[in-house]
Amino acid sequence: MKRRDFLSTSLGLAVASALAPAQxxxxxxxxxxxxxxxxxxxxxxxxxxxxxxxRHLSKVSDGVALIGPKEPQQKSTHQGVFASHYDTSRxxxxxxxxLVWGTLAKRSIARYRDIEHQSNIEFFHNIGYMMVxxxxxxxxxxxxxxxxxxxxxxxxxxxxxxxxxxxxxFPYLNFTPGSSAVLQEKDAGYFxxxxxxEAQQSIAIAQGTTLLREEVVQIQVTGExxxxxxxxxxxxxxxxxxxxxxxxxxATMLLAxxxxxxxxxxxxxxxxxxxxxxxAFPSTLYAKTDGEExxxxxxxxxxxxxxxxxxxxxxxxxxxxxxxxxxKALGTWSRSNGHEDHHVVLKRALREVFPSxxxxxxxxxxxxxxxxxxxxxxxxxxxxxxxxxVGGNGKGAKSSDEIGRLAAGMIHTQGWPSSLPQAVFSAKFx
Length: 430
What we know:
Layout (H helix, E strand, L loop, with lengths): L8 H11 L9 E3 L6 E7 L3 H10 L6 E4 L22 E3 L6 H11 L2 H8 L4 E2 L3 E5 L10 H10 L5 E3 L1 H7 L10 E5 L4 E3 L1 H14 L3 E3 L3 E7 L2 E6 L4 E9 L17 E13 L9 E6 L6 E5 L3 E2 L5 E7 L10 H8 L5 H14 L5 E14 L5 E4 L4 E5 L9 H14 L17
Parallel strand pairs: 1-10, 2-3, 2-13, 3-10, 6-15, 13-21
Antiparallel strand pairs: 4-9, 5-9, 6-8, 7-8, 11-12, 12-13, 14-18, 14-19, 15-16, 16-18, 17-18, 20-21
Helix pairs in contact: 2-7, 2-10, 3-10, 4-7
């Protein structure tokens, strides 16, 4: 297949419009054992990217299969794959130091409410996003001038805060003296990734997608089709395959060649807070340099979880002693409770930034982050029949609907449905 590195805006919009019109809902079907084993396109990986691709693709194709297991009930003993959406809250915002990531986010967030309406599943909470930094950190995550430029380019309203205004608006948060901040109040906040996946799948199924709750163990091009072997021993065939298997893409060895990716072992801390601690502040990325040690990370406001209790979620920029490689290492980390020394860092950081917080209990949850060599998702055709959508780089969840739309357009037309150059998303191999 001849790869197109760039398509003009007009052609990109033309292809995108071909995906947009809704067709009459076909008979919905969700299968664990399936009556049909032949499909036009099979999407392997039923997480954020794959489920979004299924929703977009099933608007224009009658033969879509989405293949991926359910979330395991007992993660501590689960021996299969893990996905990245096993979470209740994930930060979302448009403003970013990088224009490509800002564009992906803006286009995705613009469709959140429509997805909620079509699925009757609410997952987005528009509470705003704030980034706070004392400056001089040497990381583009906290590049305020670049972030302001992207906000201007994408016509996103932001508000600048100096140290005094931060103290006035959020007196209970203890940021480094002299910090500055930017606030995006509209089209930002947090979303529930579990519910977003559920919403995407609900719409895709209503549009005719077959959902197969299986793990895939092998894909093989055989003549005019791709043979897909599933964990239960059966086979599925498809004309084309989109692989969206996240951190497990190399570990499962589904592709002929390893992608150039790095898997980071991240850790989330979820702290239960007393009911009276229902303070309101935006989803926040912050850097702090006046504590016991420098820290930068995520601070979410108190959120009510499924058990009816309120929790504050925190996460930092430390990702374990070394990248993870191989199926066994990924599983071991995903079943673990992380490192005790890291727990100490997270607990101390939360006390330093929110000293008045009354913490009732604390849980630690492992997370896998897939970084690509380009720092953008790989959305590419590897040959005429197999495409990929892999690599969130710590920013992909909020932008998953647009990433899925690009992958759907690519696998359906073998063209490129965006004004963003395809070369930005080209796969790189190890």
